[in-house]
């Protein structure tokens, strides 16, 4: 500790940080004000020949060069010690007061009874008994730090917690997966696939029965009851009860609309600047608007007017599909309307 350390402690932390930056002091960013002042004092004292010519550090080196202010040892030795009035320490004063209280309590009266302690004596004893524990507590406990030190510690801990949470969130990769899913679903093709999966899954769920297989025994120790196990009956795939409704939905809602969208491709005809080749990446092989228009017409003809493809399909297949799709025939129309609106919106965005 040098004689210029109090000067550094009296400065603000911003001034100390500027001194540390100008003198290339390493590790100054993670220190509080007191630690930075001590580290800067050691650094400047060790490199006095290098930084003594810096104008901003002239005050520091002038204080470092001046000797510490202390009294002359000759005067201290020759100064006569005048005897003064003896002062009692708090502990002696407390002991004497307690002794007086005890003597007054033990002094017998003329009638043979003890004289009661006066109120002033009781208040003095009470103050002494209260002050002694506080003095002992102050002697044993360290002094609390300054508000600046507490603020610096809280800021460092908060920054560490924030950095840890950011690193954990980045390592999990939730944002990357969310962006990937968003990119995959932000297309008309994804919308059409979702609509077809909803319709096809509803048809399969309706025409494939669920059979009871067995029941698991209960586990009394873990409080697990008996659970019945049911599985789909895949033997229905060998019967016409499955293939008649499923093939009717497949032809009406997927195969024939895709055929019409391939041959009646309005986007292919409207493109005049791109070369029309089979491998052209800028042209859609299937027109989504034509697909949805063709699907809506087939739904109207087949399910609205009971068209059985010249007797190939039965009324059972028509009714099964109408009952399995959410919303029935109106649900099929809704799916085509969603696809058509999406195709028009995509075309508007591509032209803008």
Give structural notes.
The protein has helices at residues 5-10, 13-22, 33-46, 48-51, 58-65, 73-78, 90-106, 119-140, 147-172, 174-185, 188-207, 240-263, 266-270, 288-304, 315-324, 329-351, and strands spanning 210-216, 227-232. It is 64% helix and 4% strand. The chain has a two-stranded antiparallel ribbon. The longest helix has 26 residues, at 147-172. Among the domains are: 1-67 and 151-172, no CATH class; 185-207 and 239-351, no CATH class. By secondary structure, it is mainly α. Residues 71-90, 107-117 and 278-282 have low confidence and may be disordered. α11 (188-207) packs antiparallel against α12 (240-263), α12 (240-263) packs across α14 and α12 (240-263) crosses α15 (315-324). The protein is elongated.
Helix content: 55-70%
Query: How many angstroms separate the termini?
Result: 73 Å
| Overall pLDDT score | 77
What portion of the residues fall into strands of 2 or more residues?
under 5%
Largest sheet: 2 strands, antiparallel
Biased composition (Basic and acidic residues): 97-107
InterPro entries: Put_GTT3
Keywords: Membrane, Transmembrane, Transmembrane helix
Transmembrane segments: 246-268, 289-310, 330-349
């Amino acid at each position: 500790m040098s004689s210029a350390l109090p000067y550094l402690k009296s400065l603000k932390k911003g001034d100390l940080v500027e001194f540390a930056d100008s003198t290339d002091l390493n590790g100054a960013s993670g220190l509080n004000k007191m630690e930075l002042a001590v580290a800067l004092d050691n650094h400047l004292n060790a490199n006095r020949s290098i930084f003594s010519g810096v104008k901003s550090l002239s005050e520091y080196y002038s204080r470092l060069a001046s000797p510490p202010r202390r009294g002359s040892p000759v005067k201290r030795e020759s100064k006569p010690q005048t005897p003064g009035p003896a002062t009692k320490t708090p502990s002696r004063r407390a002991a004497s007061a307690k002794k007086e209280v005890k003597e007054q309590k033990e002094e017998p009266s003329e009638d043979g009874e003890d004289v009661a302690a006066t109120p002033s004596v009781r208040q003095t004893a009470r103050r002494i008994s209260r002050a002694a524990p506080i003095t002992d507590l102050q002697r044993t406990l360290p002094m609390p730090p300054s508000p600046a030190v507490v603020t610096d510690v809280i800021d460092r801990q908060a920054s560490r917690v924030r950095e840890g949470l950011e690193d954990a969130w980045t390592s999990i990769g939730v944002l990357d997966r969310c962006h990937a899913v968003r990119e995959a679903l932000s297309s008309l093709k994804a919308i059409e696939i979702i609509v077809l999966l909803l319709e096809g899954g509803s048809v399969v769920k309706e025409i494939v029965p669920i059979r009871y297989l067995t029941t698991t025994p209960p586990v009394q120790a873990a409080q697990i009851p008996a659970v019945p196990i049911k599985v789909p009956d895949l033997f229905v795939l060998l019967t016409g009860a499955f293939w008649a409704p499923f093939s009717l939905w497949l032809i009406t809602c997927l195969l024939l609309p895709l055929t019409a969208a391939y041959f009646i491709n309005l986007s292919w005809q409207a493109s005049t600047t791109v070369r029309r080749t089979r491998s052209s990446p800028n042209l859609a092989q299937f027109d989504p608007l034509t697909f949805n228009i063709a699907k809506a017409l087939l739904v109207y003809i087949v399910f609205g007017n009971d068209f059985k493809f010249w007797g190939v399909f039965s009324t059972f297949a028509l009714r099964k599909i109408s009952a399995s799709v959410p919303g029935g025939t109106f649900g099929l129309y809704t799916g085509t309307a969603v696809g058509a609106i999406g195709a028009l919106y995509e075309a508007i965005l591509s032209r803008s």
